[in-house]
């Protein structure tokens, strides 16, 4: 194998690696966006649960004995 063939082979490998890196970068970006979206959803749901718990705490159930009992 002469030097020209080796250089050509290395160029092919580099081109392939660059494509792979680009694909991985895109995949990483897509996953990061999904994680951000899911994190926002978790925050929204956490606030809803807190709000519902506060509303439930403010309402006294009918089957609870009065405070003087």
Q: What would the principal axes of the Cα set say about the shape?
A: rod-shaped
| Cα-based radius of gyration, to the nearest Å | 30 Å
Helix count, per DSSP?
1
- Structural class comes to mainly alpha
Helical proportion? over 70%
Mean pLDDT, as a whole number? 90
- Residue windows where pLDDT falls under 50 for at least 5 positions: none
Distance separating the two termini: 97 Å
The largest sheet, given as strand count, sense and whether it forms a barrel, is:
none
Order of helices and strands: H
What is the total tally of β strands? 0
Give structural notes.
Helices cover 81% and strands 0% of the residues. It is rod-shaped. By secondary structure, it is mostly helical. It has 1 helix and no strands.
Short description:
Helix content is 81%, strand content 0%.
Which keywords apply here?
69 residues; 81% helix; 0% strand; rod-shaped; mainly alpha
Task: Please outline the helices and strands.
Layout: H1 3-58
């Amino acid at each position: 194998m002469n030097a020209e063939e080796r250089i050509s082979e290395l160029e092919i490998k580099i081109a392939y690696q660059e494509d792979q890196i680009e694909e991985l970068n895109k995949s990483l970006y897509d996953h990061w966006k999904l994680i951000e979206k899911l994190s926002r959803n978790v925050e929204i749901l956490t606030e809803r649960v807190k709000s519902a718990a506060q509303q439930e705490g403010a309402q006294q159930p009918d089957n609870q004995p009065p405070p003087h009992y």
